Model the fold of this input.
Amino acid sequence: MTADALQHLVDVEEIRIGFRRPDGSTRSVPIWVVQVGDHIYVRSVRGPKGRWYRRLRANPDGEVRDGEHRHLVRAVPVTAASTIDQVTRAYDSKYGSSPFVRPLLGGPSVEATLRLDPA
Done:
């Protein structure tokens, strides 16, 4: 994924993240994405119990889509408290006016923070 593609993904409101199910089929769901430094991050609103999050933890190779753009990614769990705090602030800054952002700013969602690296 090039720097231009990274910026493109961050500038959109919503992306679709794709993953492989245990039966081999694929699925994608809409999610919000933020940038911290040179990396992009996503969070499961349902925390570690979220289906797409669990699937990407079991098999970290996935894809993200924004309309016509498709990027293969590898989902990397984030455990560093400072990075998690920065991601929380990025979600608040980008989506803070939405009533739906609240679950992404605390609680179990912070445990379900993933960095998306190029695959």
The chain has a mean pLDDT of 90. The first strand starts at residue 15 and ends at 20. The beta strands are 15-20, 26-31, 33-36, 39-43, 61-66, 69-77, 113-118. Residues 81-95 form the longest helix (15 residues).
